[in-house]
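Marked as duplicate of an earlier ticket. Keeping the data here for the record.
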Amino acid sequence: MDIPARLSLLGAEVDVITPAYVMDFISQRIAAGRRAIVANHNLHSLYLFQKSAEMRAFYAQADLIEIDSMPMIAWGRLLGFDVSRANRCTYLDFREDFWSLAEAKGWRVYHVGGVADHNEASRAAILTRYPKVHLDVRDGYFDIDGPGNDLILKDIADKRPDVLLVGMGMPRQEHWILKNYERLPDCVVLPVGAAFDYEAGVAYTPPRWTGRLGLEWLVRFVHEPRRLFERYFVEPWTLIPQAFRDVLKRPQTQHAAE
């Protein structure tokens, strides 16, 4: 498949891809029996990326890095890059395509993370829509540095998933993947945050049109102001130095292209 364009935005690298490209990438890696990490960047991950060497190491190992942020796309467009809403990739945007493919191709999917009760509700919701999907779930309440981690890894090895969804929230899920990647079977690994909470209906899911208009963050904030205030109104200010660097580098890039 074509190699996607890779951009440097706000101090980190991202791939200019679409949800359809992600589905094709997953399909091809599974067919070839090759491991891969499909990561994603948004403003929160960019903040953590600047603060944590482990996060930087995780993204350095990722095979594909989605843009999971309309503000990042808007910034890229402002800099003159060829990016659009079509290049935003999130679980909520591609979940129906993913589960449809998983059912049609017989993929074994394993989700680790979240609360046990929520996982079972998520599993039931997904199987209602796609009854032939092969889906195993385990909660994320274990010590990632203790014996419970070995039990999880053994169960994953026994189940031999084609796709491993890790929903532990940032940065815990990325740290876990980085630490355990070499011990995983050949599978495609995606950090998916609270995806299964949305499936279970225990987390508010903004209408998809809010994402198309770049308003999804605001709708989320209205529903969870205490949890999201710092993420949306404090953390982005720490990216100002990276924004200045982007502005300074962009003329050089344009001149080189000419």
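See parent ticket for discussion. The first strand starts at residue 5 and ends at 9.
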